[in-house]
Known about the structure:
Elements: E1 11-18, H1 25-34, E2 47-56, E3 59-68, H2 75-79, E4 87-93, H3 97-101, H4 103-113, E5 119-125, H5 138-148, E6 151-155, H6 163-180
Parallel strand pairs: 1-3, 1-4, 4-5, 5-6
Antiparallel strand pairs: 2-3
Amino acid sequence: MSTSRNTSYDYLIKLLLIGDSGVGKSCLLLRFADNSFTPTFIATIGIDFKIRTIELDGKRIKLQIWDTAGQDRFRTITTAYYRGAMGILLVFDLSDPVSFRNVNTWMHTIEQHACGSVNRILIGNKCDIPADSRKVSTEEAEALAKEYGIRYFETSAKEDINVTEAFRTLASDIKTRLIDNNPSSAAGGADDRAGAGKSGNTVDLHGDTSDDAPTPKNSKCC
């Protein structure tokens, strides 16, 4: 598997992590991008991002993953990044039923601000917790995911359970949608820093490899 910070890649895919504050979005990103974990909770201020390059079907895929703040006061800032996202990971905490109930609100936000064709997955995080601390059953979460027609994963950033699988599955689904099923989209050549290509999809072929945070722009719907 490829490591992060490599400058050579075939395609750029932009992902977004959303969900209530404290559900473990930053921990999931830290585990996936850096293979590390911190038990100390520090709320994300606004938005942060990391880069990791993986290999899928013989192609090097650069994942630019945005971690959004879950607090309401940052909502205006973070929704600006929905439009450029090709995939969204919606995270809730298996020990927090409120975060699960709020999945519907987050899905509504996706419908309002993201491209209609954006790939989405639902993640129930902290699956390593004791059974008596768990407040959301697998059956409940799977039923909700089925209602929205999306995949569901149970993860643990702490114990590194299903984290890589969730990110890679989403990236693979996006690759299938934008590249395998629509080869012409790859010919457009998107700007790595803009969040959208000529067709509205960020499918960057050997473009700008800068890891600096891009500025969100209004773009066509993907």
